[in-house]
Amino acid sequence: MKLGLSATNLRVLRNDGTALIQTTAPSTATWHHVAYTWNGTNNNLYIDGTAVTATATAHDSAAVTGAFIGATCAAADFFNGTEDPLARGAVLETPGDHVAVSADSDNPDGAEVRFGDINPSYVNQFKTFSAERLFSPIGSNVVNLTFRVPGTDDPAVTRGFGAVYTDIDREENTAFEYFDADGNSLGKFAAPVSKGGLSFLGVAFPDPVVARVKIEYGSGKLGPDDSSSYDVAVMDDFIYGEPQPAG
Prior knowledge:
Blueprint: E1 2-5, E2 9-13, E3 19-24, E4 34-38, E5 43-47, E6 50-51, E7 79-80, E8 87-93, E9 98-101, H1 122-125, E10 135-138, E11 142-147, E12 156-157, E13 160-168, E14 175-179, E15 185-190, E16 194-204, E17 212-216, E18 234-240, E19 244-245
Antiparallel strand pairs: 1-2, 2-3, 4-5, 5-6, 7-8, 8-11, 9-10, 11-17, 12-19, 13-16, 13-18, 14-15, 14-17
């Protein structure tokens, strides 16, 4: 389900694009309060406290697995929404399920922090540089980060990228590989080992040439049954130069 604006309407859409409920978009250049509810029978939409005529259009049948604000999915729009503060020009994608942010300590569902909801041992295993969220792919140990002109889908390049990692056990398992706009590798660099601690890896180039960074997180994906044969690592803060239009 998605709530957002078209050219003329404020609407709530089913995943197949069917409008559950919609109305004329509110005026621009001012704040509005928008609320949507579903009581099992009716779709209800409110703008500044005024109700739109309810509908009974049926919902998707699948269970809710995630919610995103200012984005349409975890991978594509996490750091490249159309408005500040999400318009940061970075798109994170993974061959796994999605890119996740760990829960904070006051989350309403009581999920464990530092990916303890995936494996309870991670709560003590992973440290933070700036509390308290961490980043990791789910279902894979690889993320491809591509740069965009902030707030758009236009390709961009930057001078460099760096990140803080937690719990790197083996040098060969966690690394960044940088690529230019033509897909040519600019080099692969291993992150420093710091078992149970924090590491930083960053590479800067003289000119904005980096279009994509392939990020490897340890030797395996996060999971409930990983063992000493795995080196799992997650990422904390990251930094990169202001993305510039490619070409």
